[in-house]
Amino acid sequence: MPLHVSPAPAPALRTVVTALGSPSAIRAASAPAALRTAQGPLRPELPLPTYEMARVAPRSADHAGTAESGPRTRLTGWRFLLRDEGATGESPGAAAWAGTAEAVPTADGWAFGQFRQGPYVLSTVRAVRQAEALSVPYQPRLLSVPELYMLTLWLHRDVAADPAEGVPDPADLLIPLAPAPPGIAPHKTHRVDALLPLLVRRLVTAPGRAPGATAASLLRTSA
Predict the structure, then answer these.
(1) CA 43 to the chain's CA centroid
(2) Using CB atoms within 10 A of its CB, is residue 43 exposed (0-12), middle (13-18) or buried (19+)?
(3) CA 153, 196, 198, 188 torsion: positive or negative?
(4) What is the model's pLDDT at position 206?
(5) Fewer CB within 10 Å of terminal CB in the chain, N or C?
(6) DSSP 39
(7) First and final CA of the chain: distance in angstroms?
(8) Neighbouring C-beta atoms of residue 184, cutoff 10 Å
(9) C-alpha torsion 107→110→113→115, nearest 10
């Protein structure tokens, strides 16, 4: 069943299009080599809101004494796959995808973040294909767990939800992208309420962690 892909905010898309039209940005030393050697124009496709999981495990109470439960997430930007329109063949294989581009929120709106390249590009394409074969419609998002160096395709059940808001529902699905952390199979579809306990166990038993530490204290929240 087709995914309900949400349109990115127009200013976010404009920052990416502007960066793609800037020779200095494309030729910068930090830009992926695939962008500099693209055979044709680069087109941003499949916009996905990108979230970071800032807390995995529930906490009994916050500093004000209010009980909290479930994971806590925050929107960190929008990520676009970059298609090389000059690549030969119509199949979206390695030659067709030159990398990703990110737009990040700022106090004034949106700004271009960075170009990226690596295994998560094609892994995202593969996970999206998996999701399209499911019998239930979902709203696709990306969800990272920084402490585990883990990125997942987050399939949100509420397809009408604001893509810039929300937390994973227990019935939502997560598809870990490759490479995944040891012990977590990439491209296996998990319900959130089944995968979260595994992530908590991995975090609290990691070498060098204090006994009894909560997953909340083990996760970084980066700006």
Answers:
(1) 19
(2) middle
(3) negative
(4) 57
(5) C
(6) S
(7) 35
(8) 19
(9) 170
Tokens representing residue 25 in the block: 């940005």
The type of residue at 196 is L
Task: Give the C-alpha separation, 203 to 33, whole Å.
Answer: 34
Name 143's bridge partners.
Answer: 51, 152
Cis peptide before 179 (omega within 30 of 0): yes
Contact 83, 98 (CB under 8 A): yes
For residue 205 the two structure tokens come to 């038993």
Burial of 29 (0-12, 13-18, 19+ CB in 10 A): exposed
- CB-CB contact of 56 with 200 (8 Å): yes
Q: Of how many residues is the chain composed?
A: 223
Which strands make up the sheet holding 42-55, listed edge to edge?
109-116, 97-106, 72-84, 42-55, 139-145, 150-156, 173-176, 190-191
Q: Which two tokens stand for residue 119?
A: 């295994």
Tell me how far CA of residue 150 lies from CA of 36, 61, 72, 127, 199, in angstroms.
27, 27, 16, 14, 10
pLDDT score at 67: 40
Mean pLDDT, 10 residues at a time, the chain of 223 residues: 91 96 82 82 95 68 46 91 78 72 96 93 95 96 92 96 93 96 93 90 61 34 27
pLDDT of residue 32: 81
Query: Which amino acid, 158?
Result: D
pLDDT at 100 (0 to 100): 95
Quote the pLDDT of residue 207. 53
Q: What is d(CA 181, CA 218) in angstroms, rounded to the nearest whole number?
A: 16
